[in-house]
Recover the amino acids of this structure.
């Protein structure tokens, strides 16, 4: 892949004219995809795709385009030459872009993340053995992801990271199933077996008659997968400099120090331990860590190049949505969650999340998959679907009892256009007086 990238960059350098600057951003993947149903392989394939985005700049005027590369040098050179001609024609017709900003100081980087990926055949054998006797449906994705940046000023950045992501559910009957995920860069069959064991235990519980809980306020445990849904909703403008400066952020009360979160809540964009590259499509190098919320208080925003140009803040992100969200652990051992919950709801998954009151960062969502009623520290029965409506200021503020000591790494399973490199690392959250409205 590095050779394909270098060849494309050289082709652009050979054809750029005096007074022109180009930037280009390279993305590629070599991915195995396997679909399982009834705990058997139903569809398997491999995807190799390469894309190059080129921005041709003349002063403050610019035009951009993206094209797929074949890996064949002469073919790619011819396509790039044609694309540059089209971009020149567009730039000639365009006005200045007042918010155009790209890196002009050369900062070269090369990073290859360590990994221990299994052969997909071996991993699937481990999966099917661990899920023996269960009706498992899921998607396996694995392989390396690549990114590169170059410009006509001489800067070169290269990145390679490999990971696996297994996203699955085990079906019981009717509308009842248990969902789980296992992702990372180092395959551990023991960790998979532990998760499958937890799924088996929860399947035995959802086989019991479900309990209907009336609307009200309950003590709740949000597993990391449920908390992920809440934080992803909050991230819709919650950490964006543009949203803050235009007063559209759902965390406006936190930013204005009108509200605060629990002192145990520290949230960061942890690029050093994520899967996304640490350079932006405009060539800026991102910090290893940007603290967004520090001990319950708002600290920093994510700043894209365009917002940097508009508001005069330094660039620290390619986009103003977290790609490697990291929430600090708490002190509650996961093995003691039921004991601390005592009596209430154990929520594994949420979906259909949306804002019910954005100014108060109030979110509504539905419970999904295996959610349980807990009595005196023991799981009793599954609960029928419920709708929550609660503010993050309550969930992670005055009503937060504590966070788990152990955290879960969850990779975005999205493949729209390509495998996502987004990920989160989250604890579970124990919350008092959590509001359910339906």
């Amino acid at each position: 892949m590095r050779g394909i990238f270098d060849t494309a960059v050289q082709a652009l350098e050979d054809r750029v004219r005096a007074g022109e600057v180009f930037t280009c951003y390279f993305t590629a993947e070599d991915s195995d995809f396997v679909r399982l149903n009834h705990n058997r392989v139903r569809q398997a394939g491999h995807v190799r795709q390469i894309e190059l985005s080129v921005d041709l700049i003349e002063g403050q005027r610019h035009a951009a385009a993206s094209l797929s590369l074949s890996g064949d040098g002469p073919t790619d050179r011819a396509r790039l030459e044609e694309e540059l001609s089209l971009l020149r024609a567009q730039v000639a017709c365009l006005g200045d872009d007042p918010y155009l900003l790209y890196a002009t100081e050369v900062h070269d980087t090369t990073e290859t993340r360590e990994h221990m990926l299994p052969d997909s055949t071996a991993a699937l054998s481990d999966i099917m053995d661990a899920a023996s006797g269960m009706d498992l449906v899921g998607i396996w994705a694995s392989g390396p992801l690549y990114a590169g940046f170059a410009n006509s000023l001489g800067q070169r950045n290269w990145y390679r990271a490999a990971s696996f992501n297994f996203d699955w559910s085990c079906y019981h009957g009717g509308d009842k199933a248990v969902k789980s995920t296992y992702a990372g860069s180092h395959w551990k069959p023991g960790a998979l077996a532990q998760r499958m064991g937890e799924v088996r235990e929860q399947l035995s519980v959802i086989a019991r008659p479900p309990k209907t809980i009336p609307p009200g306020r309950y003590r709740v445990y949000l597993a990391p997968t449920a908390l992920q849904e809440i934080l992803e909703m909050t991230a819709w403008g919650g950490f964006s400099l543009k949203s803050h400066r235009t007063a559209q952020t759902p965390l406006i009360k936190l930013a204005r120090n009108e509200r605060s979160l629990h002192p145990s809540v520290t949230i960061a964009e942890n690029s050093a331990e994520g899967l996304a590259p640490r350079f932006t499509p405009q060539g800026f190098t991102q910090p290893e860590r940007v603290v967004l919320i520090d001990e319950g208080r708002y600290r920093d925003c994510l700043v894209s190049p365009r917002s940097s140009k508009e508001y005069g803040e330094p660039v620290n992100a390619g986009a103003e949505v977290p790609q490697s969200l990291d929430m600090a652990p708490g002190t509650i051992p996961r093995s003691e969650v039921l004991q601390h919950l005592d009596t209430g709801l154990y929520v594994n998954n949420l979906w259909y999340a949306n804002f019910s009151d954005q100014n108060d960062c109030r979110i509504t969502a539905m419970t999904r998959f295996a959610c349980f009623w807990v009595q005196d520290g023991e799981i009793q029965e599954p609960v029928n679907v419920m709708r929550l409506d609660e503010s993050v200021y309550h969930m992670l503020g005055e009503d937060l009892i504590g966070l788990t000591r152990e955290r879960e790494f969850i990779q975005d399973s999205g493949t729209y256009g390509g495998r996502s490199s987004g990920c989160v690392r989250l604890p579970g959250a124990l919350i008092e007086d959590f509001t359910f409205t339906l």
Q: What stands out?
A: The CA atoms of residues 257 and 297 lie 8 Å apart.
